[in-house]
Design a protein that fits this description.
The structure holds 2 protein chains of 2 kinds. By secondary structure, chain A is an alpha/beta fold. Chain A has 9 helices and 5 strands. Classes of the chains: A alpha/beta, B alpha/beta. Chains A and B meet through helix 4 and helix 5 of A and helix 3 and helix 5 of B.
Amino acid sequence: MQSVTIPINQLEATALKVREHIIKMSTDGGCFVGASLSAADLIVYLYSEFLNINSNNLDDPDRDYLFLSKGHDVPALYGTFAELGLLDKERLKNHLSLDDHIYWHPNTHIPGIEFHSGSLGHLPSVAIGVAMDIKIRGGNNKVICIMGDGELNEGTCWEAVLVANAYKLDNLIFVIDRNHFQANMPTEELIPLEPLHDKFTAFGAAVKRINGHSFGELHEAFSAFPFQEGKVNVVIADTVRGKGLPSIERRADRWFCNFNATEVESLLKELHGEHLTQLTSETLVVR
Amino acid sequence: MSYEELLTEIALSDERFIVMTAENRALVRNIPGKLGKRFIDTGITEQTMIGAAAGLALRGRIPVVHALASFLTMRAFEFVRTDAGIPNLPVKLSSFIPGFLSDGNGPTHQAVEDISLMRGIPNMTVFAPADEQDLVMMLPEIWQHPNPSYVRINTRKTDHQHKPFELGKAEIISKGEDVTILTYGLLFEQALIATEILKNEGLSVGFINLRSLKPVDEQAILQATQGSGLTVTLEDHFVTGGLYSIVAEVLLKNQLTAKVLPIALNEKWFKPSLLPNVLEHEGFTGKQIAEKILGYNTNAYQPEISVPQFSE
């Protein structure tokens, strides 16, 4: 392990606040809380330490890009934006309000969102277009596309890796939030993905596999960017669906959650290690 | 001037242009060497090409993308709708061998619902040139327009001298009280023949080249349907969702009715063969069109139909 120079305590504190935002959004209509919690550390790390994206450079063509292809984990992104000053925290209270644009999938009415998503397997190709343009112009911007592991069922994800490999897009990083679940069940029980590292390697990518909840491992992996000259980068971040809330972690039936107010209060305490929450509300909504 | 010459000239003079293809190079054979990195071939990946085109457009580029009509509009439909349509990005679709132009390829390659699909996407604009001259006249304005576009590429040559193109306007070639033929794309050349036959039979014949199917020239449709005893919608497209539907929509919107004869493909794909055979078999030669309108056979002359320059 190389020595870590990032402010881990600060990142952990930010991630905790982001998780609080996610829990607060998982009521009054709910949200995809499990996938948001699995991606939270990853997104906090990338915006805090790795990417050159802030509220002052959104119009700068030389800034970096992050495309959130899995889409339904957008509460983690909005929570991060709120903590890092890209989005007014008050707007998070407008979740699902007709007076704002904060709904279950990302959209460009929110500053910092690069592209709307929700239909899986789209943004790998959009990110390729942006990475291609940066290459044509000789720029140094980094482009990240976060995909879910369930999303890898979509053929266009693999098509994108083929094309990114062909065009030697070493300025592009596909990050897989490997939380081991798709909507209703574990990935390996429905459409097995392993050995995932080998699959991406065979497609020509330079691959790193890390613990997506360890800021040290995240930093070590992303500090090595570009992983290999001329190769598209892939980071497989092993994560836990529902991370931070033991009462919903790794549970197939806690995908889209719409908690009642009492549960939200209890989950916020659970997040801080107080106790497990007795969940009574029907929280599985198949979408 | 050819399609490829026009695209080369425009792309060389405007850095924003990127020429893309999903390994369909028939129309852009010499462009790779001229454009260098601004030519991108993504391989047989229509979906990824459209997504990447959206990404390029996000960076200020104008991607002109090429693929076979059926795969561009159907394989990649959701990418066109979601990645170009929703954000209204200037992704310019050049659709190769649409309609009858897929001649011998068979139903997999028959895009005879493309107009219907593409015009159903908000922000999308839809065009079908009558021949190569019409195509080259319309593309500069279409490509400079801020919206995404779908163009049925038609590089066939006719003797007709077209009027200047205006986006959203039809080309009114003649006006007639008895019958008016509305058409677009490839069938323009057969409609020209049909028009002459009808005139020789003593009818007063109107003839309109729609050119722009979305936005459509509602005034031209209203004038034709209200000023003519019979309106014919002629298209190499399913009868559902194409020009016949457009005419119906325009009439209903204006609380009008009219006698309209659709000549189109009715709930079936066409028999694959070389184009002249296809037109004859399906009843779309100029002579057959005229006789369908007249209701009787004539001894009119049907000029030879040329075999397309490209197949795939």
